[in-house]
């Protein structure tokens, strides 16, 4: 087993990690499974450009059982993620043009009533103004009223023939206008998809090794990455130190330092990015062509009151499904269609959080929740854990009310710029395994933004682990509140990060938890997609405030 000879002494700084034995067993196990499964292949990408990408298309060959799920579930997930494949194009002008694509309102009426829909048709055209003949463009649509600070999200249905339709609900009284943007052309989505399915490492990470007393400390920095896929995917041969987390199943690799041994890995940070695009792909990806508003029917729609419109009365509880739209903004307040949400004053927040231990896991977007609580909840004070405020872990307490709030980032891969102790990066599934749970425990996690750089199969594998841990937690302590906060939109448009990828991850998370009783899903995708603030990976305070009201409406429904 070549990967084995690469590892050093089995003294490992990674929490819950054992080097030699585990790597060996795990690798043999996976190889055996691959053999058994005959290596189910992922659908190969059809290149849209005229020239194939040079040697950069190494697709991962991962089977459902490698991911820890059944073949049936993998089929289901692939169907849920299915996205139309564009035709081959040979010229840039054949890609979808935001300038020539347009939308229109079908059967526009003088006036509407609250609760009615309007139907919008989007027509995609290329740069020669020709109608597109196939689907796959990524549009985002919403209805809005700036003066009322009102907006609602609409789902775009792809007819796979160059036309798309959106039914937009008219949830508020007054005026409304349609807004549609082309996030990515189908051609660009296909490029993103190609690199998401492949194991090409678009991101790298740094591993900081150190040994000896501070005055004479030896330091070395090397590149690290995830080991995933057909015999490793990143570096091969006798290159690397390997760190396997037995419970999470993840193998982390760092290039073997010249002087220090593998057990001297101490810190971690995000590293350089690597652009896999060829020239043609690069041109398709031009910033001028992505995330652009398209022209169309800007008619002001008049919406009249409707006494018959039904209000949600359902109490917020686990197991509710998320419709489209999941709610809407009016005067910057999110009114949910999932259940009866309310707004919490700082005193009500303090009351709701009384006798609670809140565990926030994930990334900087759950840290925003932590910071929001810290700012709003009277008497809540951050303990000094001597960690970096951006990297955590963080903890805040309110002694009078016996409230504790924890925040912690998930394990590697994690692209924080800050150099963090690798011992502080814990896998969400492992963390959940260590919570006894109960009526006082509120467990919230987000797992999205940092995973867009890596194969979707790895994401499925990790979500399966998290699901296992959640099921076990709810079995030992059914009164535990478990909340999934979806990934939010970020308006990002590069080969490294794009909302299309984040949407795919959200679909996987939602699908994989669909049948798990007792779990709450908070869809912040819709909440961020339709808000008037420019899309940003860290949503503005007004959005966070609405997200927190959603959360607390579940924690304290009465
Ligand atoms: C793809 O695989 C080949 C053969 O294993 C290897 O030589 C090459 O470096 C890989 N390319 C990338 C980008 O991973
Ligand atoms: C890339 O894909 C093509 C077509 O599927 C294949 O012929 C080629 O061997 C692949 N290259 C690598 C390095 O995997
Ligand atoms: C509005 O559109 C949605 C989505 O297509 C549909 O489910 C709903 O029934 C429609 N409502 C009305 C009142 O037409
Ligand atoms: C595309 O498909 C939709 C739905 O089947 C149909 O209503 C529409 O007429 C088609 N448009 C074109 C241009 O073929
Ligand atoms: C909880 O905290 C709030 C705000 O500090 C305070 O007004 C209230 O008295 C506290 N409740 C208890 C039981 O200490």
From TrEMBL:
SUPFAM superfamilies: E set domains (SSF81296)
Residue ranges of domain NXPE C-terminal in the record: 334-556
One family name in Pfam for this protein: Neurexophilin
Transmembrane segments: none
Similarity annotation: Belongs to the NXPE family.
Protein name: NXPE C-terminal domain-containing protein
Source organism of the structure: Cirrhinus molitorella
Source taxonomy: Eukaryota, Metazoa, Chordata, Craniata, Vertebrata
């Amino acid at each position: 087993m070549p990967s084995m000879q690469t590892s050093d002494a089995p003294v490992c700084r990674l929490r819950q990690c054992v080097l030699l034995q585990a790597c060996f067993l795990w690798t043999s196990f996976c190889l055996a499974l691959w053999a058994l499964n005959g290596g189910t292949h992922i659908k190969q990408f059809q290149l849209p450009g005229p020239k194939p990408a040079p040697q950069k298309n190494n697709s991962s060959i991962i089977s459902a059982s490698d991911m820890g799920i059944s073949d049936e579930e993998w089929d289901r997930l692939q169907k849920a993620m299915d996205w139309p494949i564009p035709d081959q194009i040979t010229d840039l002008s054949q890609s979808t043009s935001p300038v020539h694509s347009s939308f229109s309102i079908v059967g526009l009426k003088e006036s509407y009533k609250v609760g009615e829909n309007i139907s919008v048709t989007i027509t995609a055209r290329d740069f020669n103004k020709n109608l597109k003949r196939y689907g796959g463009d990524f549009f985002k649509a919403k209805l809005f009223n700036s003066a009322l600070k009102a907006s609602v999200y609409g789902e775009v249905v792809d007819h796979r023939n160059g036309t798309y339709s959106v039914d937009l609900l008219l949830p508020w009284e007054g005026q409304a206008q349609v807004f549609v943007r082309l996030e990515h052309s189908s051609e660009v989505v296909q490029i993103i998809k190609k690199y998401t399915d492949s194991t090409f490492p678009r991101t790298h990470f740094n591993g900081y090794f150190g040994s000896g007393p501070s005055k004479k400390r030896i330091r070395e920095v090397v590149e690290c990455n995830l080991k995933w896929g057909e015999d490793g995917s990143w570096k091969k041969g006798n290159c690397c130190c390997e760190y396997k987390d037995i419970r999470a199943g993840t193998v982390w690799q760092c290039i073997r330092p010249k002087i220090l041994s593998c057990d001297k890995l101490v810190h971690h940070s995000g590293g350089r990015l690597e652009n896999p695009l060829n020239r043609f792909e690069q041109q398709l990806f031009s910033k001028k062509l992505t995330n652009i508003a398209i022209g169309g029917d800007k008619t002001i729609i008049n919406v009249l009151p409707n006494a018959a419109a039904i209000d949600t009365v359902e109490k917020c509880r686990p197991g509710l499904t998320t419709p489209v739209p999941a709610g809407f903004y009016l005067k910057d307040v999110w009114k949910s269609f999932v259940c009866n949400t309310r707004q919490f004053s700082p005193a009500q927040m303090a009351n709701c959080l009384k006798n609670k231990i809140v565990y926030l896991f994930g990334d900087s977007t759950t840290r925003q929740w932590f910071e929001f609580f810290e700012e709003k909840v009277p008497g809540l004070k951050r303990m000094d854990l001597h960690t970096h405020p951006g990297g955590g872990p963080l903890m805040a307490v309110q002694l009078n009310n016996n409230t504790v709030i924890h925040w912690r980032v998930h394990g590697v891969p994690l692209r924080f710029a800050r150099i963090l102790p690798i011992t502080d990066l814990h896998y969400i599934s492992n963390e959940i395994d260590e919570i006894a749970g109960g009526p006082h425990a509120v467990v919230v996690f987000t797992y999205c933004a940092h995973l867009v750089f890596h194969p979707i199969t790895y994401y499925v594998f990790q979500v399966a682990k998290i699901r296992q841990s959640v099921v076990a937690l709810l079995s030992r302590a059914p009164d535990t509140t478990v909340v999934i906060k979806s990934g939010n939109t970020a308006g990002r448009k590069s080969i490294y990060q794009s909302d299309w990828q984040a949407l795919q991850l959200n679909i996987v998370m939602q699908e994989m938890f669909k049948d798990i009783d007792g779990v709450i899903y908070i869809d912040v995708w819709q909440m961020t997609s339709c808000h008037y603030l420019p899309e940003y990976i860290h949503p503005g305070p007004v959005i966070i405030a609405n997200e927190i009201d959603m959360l607390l409406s579940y924690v304290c429904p009465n």
